[in-house]
## 1
Amino acid sequence: MTGGRKPEAPIRQPAVGTVRRTSPNVTAVQLPDPPKARRRLPVRQILCLLPLVLVAVVAVRHRDVLAEGFAHLGTAEWPWLLAAAGATCLTWVAAACCRQGAVVERLPSARLLATQFAAGAANHLLPTGLGASAVNLRFMTVCGLPLARSSAAIALYLLAESIGRVALLAALLLAFPDALRLSTLLPEGAMAPLVITVIVTVLVVAGVLMLIRRVRTTVVSFLRTALGEARSVHTRASRAFALWGGAFAFPALQAAGLVAVGEALGLDVPPLHMAVAYLAATVAVALVPTPGGIGSVEAALIVALVAAGGPAAVATAVVLAYRIITVWLPILPGALTLGALVRWKVI
């Protein structure tokens, strides 16, 4: 025996089948039921259905335009209408090319094209440019681009598309100076208030930038990011070609769609003059913040086609039929695509 310590006695196990008896002095305490988990609001499901609700609201508000537009389509020459539909489909391809050209990283092609189709529907439901920009911003951030670079890519796309549209308009006006009767586009005396408004807006923006340091710092930081992104894109020939090729092709295809509808309905205006009218109207209406330009685009296009020499009745029919093809026919499939992309977490 070593150490003088006795071995510990083994712990006795209770006999099989015995039941422990509770002490009569112990009071049982009823534990409260665990709190039920609160049901989370199905935000993603709501976002999937929201585009369809907005489509229904917009369609009801413009039901008279829809009815009249479809009536004009019934009297048109269908080969030209198919050409207009084909040009409209190619605008989404051009937009996808331009979006890809605005970033250095390669974006998934199929999802990028589907996003442009969905962005077109969003653009007709929200003020001009905001819907498409929001959808594409979300798409690029999901693809892994930082928010600052995604925003810079959006700005570069908008700048390139605006330059392409204005450059095409300027080139066509130089080639066909008599394409539009500019005196009919603006009422007499309307130019002076327009110029004053532009000058006041520029002065207000400049004043805000000079007086509010936080705004000035944010704008300068964003401009640095945007300029760096633009330099990076233009160091790669494929990206620069996609950016500027898409920027010029997008408005050209839109104008081609209007020309095809004009030919389908027998508008007595030369095709290139119709293209000038379209570009002039869309440049003018870009400053009007209506959802997808609905209402303002129709009015501007009718005025521009009349200024190009077309009869008012036929010009109205052409514009309504054109908007049916480019806005109302794709808007429901586009909204469904938008909802599907939200559900699949592509955006």
## 2
Amino acid sequence: MRSASFRVKWSRSWPATSKTCSWCSEQLPSRAPPLRAGSPDLCWDTPQPLGRFSVVKRCDHRGTKRTVAVKHVNKKLMRRDQVTQELNLLQRLQHPHIVSLIDTYETPSSYALVLEMADQGRLLDYIVSWGNLTEEKVAGYLRNVLEALHYLHNCRIVHLDVKPENLLVSHTASGQPIVKLSDFGDAVQLNSAHYVHPLLGSPEFASPELVLGEPVSLTSDLWSLGVVTYVLLSGASPFLDESAEETCLNICRLDFSFPRDYFQGVSQGARDFVCLLLKTDPGRRPPASLCLQEPWLQAGQGHGQAEGCLDTSRLISFIDRRKHQTDARPIGGVRSFIHSRIQPRLLSHGNPAPGLQFLD
């Protein structure tokens, strides 16, 4: 339930009437909250970068002492209608594994979204801090994300930015970690089969269809989760190369492998789960609902999960490298580069075996 201290306030032009959401069959406000002028009565903490267009600040309400996260979107980098689109989506979402929107307001330089605070921070930072990572824990984190994606996809919403930085951790009252999906700045409702999403910043977690400028689908998120799974298991990135162009080429070629040094002690079941999601053809990737039924993901039942601790030493350098990849500029020339380097049959969603090289 939303705190009264941060209750959304509706203006006359944004009536607080309700209707049933055609996506999720829930009672919803008829519109997203207006971006009110001025700031709530908040005490500010040090801002941290969040994505390509914004920073996030940890804040405490002076009256209630409730801690929240305030996402400030720079007006110079994002238009008002783009922010409104994110608000429209967030207002329709209520799920334990999705960071919830509490309030909104506007300052002279930014649009501000007051969000639920994930008290343990980003998932990779949490893993490095606590240590003792096992396949069972990885499977638990992935189940949380898949439950969020299953909910979104039932609403015909595709997130399009599933990556480690957008996976946050909170502790339950009993101290158990739960993962929450955040940052819906790229998310869209798929009303048709022909939405093409721009490729911005690092393509490391982007699906082949996004890289190639083809229509995205709900399973575009499952590809990204496959890359996240690879990172959690090994501390390495499956497709990363020396340039964005070469990285995109690796993605479209499905050019990845499981190096022995990185996957020492990782079970075959875990590797099979990665391969299940990393398929070039979006139609061959299973939906989130089927992924949740995979034996390797089942809690506490030991379906092929390795018992030892995973090596997390590489995650530290992975985190440090990713801190510097917040470029908002489009990656120019990538698609023409890829078309000049890849055989035409691959662009028709062929699925080469991992690590298979094509002729240049």
## 3
Amino acid sequence: MKFESLYRHFLLTRATQIPVIGEKGELVGLLSKERVHRELSDLGKEREDLDQIPIEILETELSESLVLYFKESSLIPVIGIDGEKKDNWDKPRFLAAFTKLESKQIRDPKLETIESKLEKKKENLDSVQWFMELILSHFPDGLIATDVTGGTIFYNESFEKDILTKPLFDDSIETAEKFLHNLNREVLATYLKDHDLSLGKEADTSVLTTMLPDLQSQVRIITLKKEKKVVGFLYHFTSSVSGFGKGKSDFPDLDLAFHSKLPLETVLAEMEAHYIHKSLQRNSQNISHAASELGIPRTTLQNRIRFLNLSERFQNHKKEKLVIPRKRSEKQGTLEKKPLPKKGQTKKQSGSQAKDSKNTLRKAVKTRKESTPTLKKQKNTKKLSPSAKKAAKKAKKRR
């Protein structure tokens, strides 16, 4: 394609600017009649054959003459990037394509770099979010996050397996939401009342702690904020077996129990349960040795173990005992075994022989029973004194 061939399009129309479209049909720019004249007037410039119209010579601003052109005619010729005529556009179609072109030109080139950075950040955020979800799902303690109204946003597997299955919640997330929402209010109210505070700058309610004997766990209520605005709450459940107290002791923290206003019976039961559990662990689950160590009878210790329900309370720490079945004695095995029929005998013959042997055994037992009273009489006579024998003889003579 030669550059001179572009001028022929202006000979067929009165328009001073002709739209140029790309391969996909989108508007690339406007070819101006003045710019073609200027390029052709430069006689010293060598012109080579072109594959397409140079984008540098295309304009992106709409002239007034082109607007006036649509008052005289309804269609305008459209040429492709290869310099050939492609179509005729009416005014609405031309203006729609021009607005798209204008919006692309107005866009700041820095936006592309900013968008690429944002995309990279999104990718990083997605990877971080995935890793955070993995950590929370494998967290050993129970976690549940709710919004301000008490609706569940997130809970991990530990909460679903260990906490939600307790009788207090009965495997129902709705009952758990109601209970925790009311618990949050009660704990906040008791904290403010004990410290003579009101909700404001003085009260630090970001983390509140309480104990739940029904769940045998400690609960930390963490307030979630975004730009000083409360968004939700995170409930962190710690098992009583893993340790309430400070240091190495597994006993409940007495200060925490006091602030939670727990009854004295529950605190004493918790301490007693931990103390007995430790003693049983030290004595390899031997109740007799643990009872002697604790200074109480064995039956008392058994009753306390049942009353405190240690098997369920410390079920994660309970070791499974191997039960070895007892072997049966040889005598029982011989009695239960039935004699097999000999060669040449039928089952009926063997059965009749067995009946005969049973009858002989019964007769022998009867003869033994009958002989026992005579033997007793003989024994009694031997034991009689000589004076008693004389008295017996006189009694016989009188008869």
